[in-house]
Structures are given as C-alpha cells and as structure tokens.
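Why should sequence recovery work at all? Because a backbone constrains its sequence more than one might expect. Tight turns favour small or flexible residues, buried strands favour hydrophobic ones, and helices have their own preferences. The token representation captures these environments compactly. In the example below, the structure is given first.
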C-alpha cells in the first residue's frame, strides 16, 4: 500500500466515532491495522536489502577466492631455479638445453616445458639451446623477448640496459610493447639502453698470449663451471691460445693435451676434467725372443 493511502486510512480511523471498547480490544485492533498497512512493506524492503547485502558479500568473497586460487595454481605450475651464491651455476632444461646461471640470477619456466619452451630470466645467463623447429625457445626478461630455434647466446640485464650476445645460430629480438624486430647473426650484440637500440659487433673470442696454463685453466673453470685437474709440473708452462667464447670445453683441453703430450678426460655429469701425463711404459717386462 502506498504511503498516501496509508495516511488516508489512518486519518479515517482517527476521526471515526467509535463505541467505547476495552483496552484489550484496542490493542487487537491496532495490531491488525499495523499488520495490514505498515508492517509488510517495511519488512519486504528490509529483507530485500539484507538479501542483496548477503549476495554482494558472497560474490566479492567468491571472486577473491577465485583470484587467489588461480594465482596459486599458476605459481604451482612453475619451476624456479635460483643462484644465490657467488659462483656460476650450471644446469640442463628438460630438453637438454644448457644454462649457465650467473650469481644472484633466477630462471623460471613451466612444468609443461615440453610444449611451452619459454623461460623468464632475472639477471644474467648463457643459453645453449637444443633445436626444435616445432617449439621455438623464448627468453623473456624485464624489457625484451629473445626467440630462437636452436643456438647459443648470452643475456645480461640491469635496471636500464639489456645486452644479448649471439655466439652461434640466429635469434630474433623484440622489445616488450613495441612492434619492431631485429635478427642477430653470430658475433652480433643487441644493446638496449633506456629505450634506444644498437646492434653492434663484439669480440667472440679471447686471446691468451704466452700465458701460463694455470691462468687458462682458471678462466675455463670460471666460464664452464668445471673443476679441472692438471699436473703441478705443467701449471707454469706458457702457451699462446685463442679460445672462442662459449665453445665446447673439450676443444681448448684437447689443444693443451696435444701440445704437452697429455691425456685428458671429461666427466660432464660431475663437471670435472682431468689432464694427466701418459702412463710410463714399465721397463722390467721381459722381452719375448
């Protein structure tokens, strides 16, 4: 009933000459009037508001739960590898692609890596990627996306700069939020500095001119995360050698071994290599006549 009708009805009851009735009858009459004219509209509106508030709270809570649950599921589907130490960390991805992770750096990739060869990098790392034409390999960092099929390259970044050095193969570079693309060839470096891009050549090798074997071994251990054993008598011997950056560690070890008539062995699983002298031929073995 509308408010004006209620007021009119109330006035009619007020002005009406009524016979004298008991207080009990008055209470009953007033109760009927209140129930028929005032109580129902008020309760209907009140209940509607209450139900609306409850539904709104449930929707908000449900949305929040869905968001939190989705976020937890996304986190649970990722694998993170960090290097909190001060030495190079070496590991393989599920497709046997090699990563050398620099100190204070971090790599994240999906548990479904076989179908999604995409990793997120924070910091600096070297990549030697296995070829898979059906599943391009992508590295995403703070500013750039590096896309490859199979190659080796190095990425280094800080707050304002990103450097990508290509050692072999080809890579495609893009900047997040921009449409341009750049194709790098071996020996080229993509340099992003505060939004400005420069593609330039870099020195893809290091020359050792009459350096001690000890110096070269220290370099190889640091670059390849290997522990290399060499006979002490050879550590101070000098050698002139060019080492191509990020090439197979077997190449420089083989050169040193051939120059000084040494044997070498490589244990890739335990990241160890050994250079040692040839076993001496025993002289007390009788010679058959």
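From this structural description, the recovered sequence reads:
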């Amino acid at each position: 009933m509308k408010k004006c009708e209620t007021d009119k009805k109330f006035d009619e009851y007020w002005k009406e000459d009524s016979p004298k009735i008991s207080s009990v009858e008055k209470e009953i009459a007033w109760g009927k009037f209140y129930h028929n004219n005032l109580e129902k509209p008020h309760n209907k509106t009140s209940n509607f508001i209450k139900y609306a508030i409850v539904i709104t709270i449930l929707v908000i809570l449900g949305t929040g739960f869905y968001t939190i649950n989705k976020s937890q599921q996304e986190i649970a589907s990722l694998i993170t590898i960090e290097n909190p130490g001060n030495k190079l960390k070496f590991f393989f991805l599920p497709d046997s692609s090699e990563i050398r992770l620099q100190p204070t750096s971090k790599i994240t990739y999906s548990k479904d890596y076989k179908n999604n060869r995409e990793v997120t990098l924070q910091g600096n790392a070297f990549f030697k990627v296995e070829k898979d034409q059906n599943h391009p390999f992508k590295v995403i960092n703070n500013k750039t996306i590096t896309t490859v099929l199979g190659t080796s390259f190095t990425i280094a970044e800080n707050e304002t700069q990103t450097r990508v050095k290509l050692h072999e193969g080809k890579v495609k570079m893009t900047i997040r939020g921009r449409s341009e693309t750049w194709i790098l060839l071996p020996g080229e470096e993509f340099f992003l500095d505060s939004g400005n891009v420069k593609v330039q050549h870099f020195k893809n090798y290091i020359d050792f001119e009459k350096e001690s074997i000890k110096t070269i071994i220290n370099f190889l251990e640091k670059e390849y995360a290997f522990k290399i054993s060499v006979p002490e008598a050879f550590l101070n011997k000098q050698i002139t050698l060019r080492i191509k950056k990020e090439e197979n560690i077997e190449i420089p070890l083989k050169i040193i071994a051939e120059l000084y008539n040494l044997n070498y062995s490589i244990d890739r699983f335990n990241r160890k290599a050994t250079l040692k002298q040839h076993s001496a031929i025993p002289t007390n073995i009788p010679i058959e006549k």
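A few observations help interpret the result. Residues 78-201 form a domain with the Jelly Rolls fold (CATH 2.60.120.1440).
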